[in-house]
């Protein structure tokens, strides 16, 4: 099936799953109408609960479902959809308070019946979920702790929302409708069991071993790993995986990193990781011989998926990692299609893979445009930041037929996407790897 058809299928399936409970609840006996705003409030409540349930599926890493989009885009959609769901969850009681002011007085008085208590605590759990996720870094919440809390809050919000629907009984009073919502809740629990119990068991049976730790320029480190007791897995150049080090797969301390090694080198996987966050600040302490677990591969950021007569790459900082995987793979294949790399960094001394990139120019039909924001005094190349004029000066005449890959900090991605489109590259030819999933 064509990727666009598969993407359309999954989008329609998402919309169907969100709306299906609303139509199912209209079957059979229905309560007397209480007015448009009252029914709209109930519809929002049902829709929010369905959306929360689907969020569990979106983040379960089902490769067949995420393949048309790339799991980084699925996670980004998960974030936006969660914001929308929380807005609906907030509108749900506000509309009820407008129609029945007595409900607000009951809540303020603190004399909550069960059906209101479950709804209120579900909303509080959702609010805590949103605040801890959107402002995790300003609040200095450790990534590993946040992941555990995130799952617990999500389960609490969903299970209490289902309990709220069942306790209210409006449009869901018949037994089979009650079991519908209980089935939705149980299916989400099953997804959590699969992700947090079954998959870790599978990973335990397929360990990896760190064979080399290489210090790179730009406060980055390359970890080389080999499979232990199994054949590893095949991946496409540019894909990424979740890596677990110094912990069990059950501990929820896995982190997503781009694969930087050639996809055509069997039995070895390398990750190039910069000292940036809670976990990566100590990545240089990893020693050869340590055991690891890898869940992957994921992503659609690859020249093997987006084939073209030539490519343009745009990297910022350690965003060069997946691009190095593609360049190394193309070099091993003897591929001589024209390649152009824009590589933005602060200083020349910190440019990661600087020497290897120069060597790759001898093996590939590769041109590199370095863009330094803090160049040395004798620098003859591009200065400042990636701007329209930088792309205008260096993009080839056949730019419209080339596929473009961008990876780096989110602000740089936004600038590069806009600039490339202005230079005549079709938006369908521009592919970005979202650098920060959370």
From TrEMBL:
Cofactor (UniProt): FAD
GO cellular component: membrane
Annotated CDD domains: FNR_like_3
SUPFAM superfamilies xref list: Ferredoxin reductase-like, C-terminal NADP-linked domain, Riboflavin synthase domain-like
Entry's Gene Ontology molecular function annotations: 2 iron, 2 sulfur cluster binding; flavin adenine dinucleotide binding; metal ion binding; oxidoreductase activity
Keywords on record: 2Fe-2S, FAD, Flavoprotein, Iron, Iron-sulfur, Membrane, Metal-binding, Oxidoreductase, Transmembrane, Transmembrane helix
InterPro entries noted in UniProt: FAD-bd_8, FAD-bd_FR_type, Fe3_Rdtase_TM_dom, FNR_nucleotide-bd, MRET, OxRdtase_FAD/NAD-bd, Riboflavin_synthase-like_b-brl
Alphabetical list of PROSITE patterns matching this protein: FAD_FR
Statement: the UniProt record of this protein carries the keyword DNA-binding: no
Its membrane topology: Multi-pass membrane protein
Residues of the FAD-binding FR-type domain: 203-304
PANTHER family associated with the record: 1,2-PHENYLACETYL-COA EPOXIDASE, SUBUNIT E, NADH OXIDOREDUCTASE HCR
Protein name: Oxidoreductase
Originating species: Trichloromonas acetexigens
Lineage of origin: Bacteria, Pseudomonadati, Thermodesulfobacteriota, Desulfuromonadia, Desulfuromonadales
């Amino acid at each position: 099936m064509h990727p666009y058809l598969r993407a359309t299928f999954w989008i329609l399936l998402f919309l169907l799953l969100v709306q299906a409970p609303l139509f199912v609840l209209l079957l059979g006996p229905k309560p007397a109408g209480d007015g448009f705003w009252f029914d709209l409030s109930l519809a929002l409540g049902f829709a929010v609960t369905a959306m929360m349930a689907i969020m569990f599926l979106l983040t379960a890493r089902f490769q067949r479902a995420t393949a048309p989009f790339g799991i980084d885009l699925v996670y980004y959609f998960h974030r936006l959809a969660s914001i929308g769901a929380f807005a609906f969850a907030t509108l749900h009681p506000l509309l009820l308070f407008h129609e029945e002011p007595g409900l607000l007085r009951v809540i303020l008085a603190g004399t909550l019946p069960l059906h209101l208590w479950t709804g209120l605590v579900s909303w509080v759990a959702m609010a805590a979920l949103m605040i801890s996720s959107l402002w995790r870094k300003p609040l200095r919440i450790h990534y590993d702790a946040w992941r555990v809390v995130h799952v617990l809050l999500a389960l609490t919000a969903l299970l209490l929302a289902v309990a709220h629907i069942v306790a209210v009984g409006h449009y869901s009073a018949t037994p089979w409708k009650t079991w519908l919502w209980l089935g939705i809740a149980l299916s989400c629990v099953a997804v959590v069991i699969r992700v947090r119990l079954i998959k870790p068991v599978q990973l335990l049976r397929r360990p990896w071993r760190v064979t080399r730790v290489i210090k790179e320029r730009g406060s980055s480190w390359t970890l080389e790993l080999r499979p232990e007791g199994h054949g590893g897995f095949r991946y496409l150049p540019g894909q990424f995986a979740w890596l677990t080090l110094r912990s069990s797969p059950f501990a929820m301390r896995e982190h997503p990193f781009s694969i930087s090694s050639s996809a055509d080198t069997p039995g070895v996987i390398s990750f190039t990781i910069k000292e940036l966050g809670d976990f990566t600040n100590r990545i240089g302490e990893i020693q050869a011989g340590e055991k690891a677990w890898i869940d992957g591969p994921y992503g659609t950021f690859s020249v093997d998926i987006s084939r073209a007569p030539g490519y343009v790459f745009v990297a910022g900082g350690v965003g060069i990692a997946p691009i190095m995987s593609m360049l190394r793979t193309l070099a091993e294949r003897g591929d001589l299609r024209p390649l152009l790399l824009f590589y933005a960094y602060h200083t020349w001394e910190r440019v990661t893979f600087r020497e290897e990139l120069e060597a790759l120019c001898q093996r590939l039909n590769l041109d590199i445009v370095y863009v330094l924001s803090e160049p040395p005094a004798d620098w003859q190349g591009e200065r400042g930041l990636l701007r329209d004029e930088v792309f205008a000066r260096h993009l080839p005449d056949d730019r419209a037929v080339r596929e473009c890959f961008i990876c780096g900090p989110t602000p740089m991605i936004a600038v590069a996407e806009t600039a490339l489109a202005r230079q005549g590259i079709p938006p369908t030819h521009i592919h970005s790897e979202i650098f920060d999933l959370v």
